[in-house]
Amino acid sequence: MKSIVAPSILAADFNNLQRDIEMVNESEADLIHFDVMDGTFVPNISFGIPVLEAVNKIAKKPIDVHLMIVNPEQHLEAFKNAGADYISVHYETCPHLHRTVYQIKELGCKAGVVLNPHTPVSLLEGVITDVDFVLLMSVNPGFGGQKFIPHTYQKVKDLKKMIRESGSKALIEIDGGVDASNAKALVEAGADMLVAGSYVFKHPQPKEAISSIKHLS
Ligand SMILES: O=C(CO)[C@@H](O)[C@H](O)COP(=O)(O)O
Ligand SMILES: [Co+2]
C-alpha cells in the first residue's frame, strides 16, 4: 500500500529553505505542499507569490498550492504563473465553487476543493465529478503542528463512498497532523495523498520520515 506524499514547507526552516527544498527533491516525496494564508480566512499569514516563484526555481516536484485566502478566484492565474501545478480552494471561501474549479482547470492545473473539519462531505455532491482531488483538513487551518482530529477517518470513508458511487476519479488528500501513527489508517480508510509538515521537517531524518508515510504495508 502506497500514498502520494506532499511535505508542507510551512514547517521548513526558512533560513535554509533551499536546503529543505533540495532534501524534498532528493526524497521519495511526490509533491511540495505550499500553504498560502491571508490573515482573514485563517488567523495566520504565511507566504505568497514571490516565495512560490523562488521555490519553483529549485523544486523538482510538482507544487501543490493550498489557498487559505478569501476571494481565491482573483489570484489563480498569478499562482499558476508563479509555479503552481495543483491548486486547491476552500469550499468555505467559494460561493461560485463550480466556476472556480473550472478556472483552475482551464489554467492547466489540477483542481482541488478543501473542506474544513466541520464542513460535511455531502456538500461536495454537486462538484465531485468535476474536481481532481478533495483535500480534507484534519486540523483547523491556519497553523502547522496541530493535533490530528480523529473524526477525519469517518469523513474519508464517506467521501470515498461518494466518489465511488458518482464515478468520480477524484483523489482524497489529508492535511494536518499527519504522521507515522495515522498514515496507514488514513490510506486504509481511502486517502490517496498525505500532506505532512512538522512530521517531516522536525524529524532528524526527514527523507526517512517521507518514505515511512509513503510505503504503508
Ligand atoms: O494547511 C495546513 C495548515 O493550515 C497544513 O498544510 C500544515 O502546514 C500541515 O502541517 P502539520 O500539521 O503537518 O505540521
Ligand atoms: Co495545507
TrEMBL record:
Active-site residues, as the UniProt record annotates them: D35, D175
What keywords were assigned to this record?
Answer: Carbohydrate metabolism, Cobalt, Isomerase, Manganese, Metal-binding, Zinc
Q: What class of enzyme is it?
A: isomerase
Catalytic reaction(s) noted: D-ribulose 5-phosphate = D-xylulose 5-phosphate
The record's listing under InterPro entries reads: Aldolase_TIM, Ribul_P_3_epim, Ribul_P_3_epim-like, RibuloseP-bd_barrel
Q: Which PROSITE patterns match?
A: RIBUL_P_3_EPIMER_1 (PS01085), RIBUL_P_3_EPIMER_2 (PS01086)
Gene Ontology terms: biological process: pentose catabolic process; pentose-phosphate shunt
Q: Which cofactor does it need?
A: Zn(2+); Mn(2+); Fe(2+); a divalent metal cation
Instruction: Summarize where a divalent metal cation binds, as residue positions.
Output: H33, D35, H66, D175
Q: Does the keyword Cytoplasm apply?
A: no
Could you tell me which pathway this protein works in?
A: Carbohydrate degradation
Keyword set includes Amino-acid biosynthesis: no
GO molecular-function annotation terms? Answer: D-ribulose-phosphate 3-epimerase activity; metal ion binding
Q: How is the cofactor bound?
A: Binds 1 divalent metal cation per subunit.
Q: Which NCBIfam families match?
A: PRK05581.1-4, rpe
This chain belongs to the protein called: Ribulose-phosphate 3-epimerase
Name the gene for this chain.
rpe
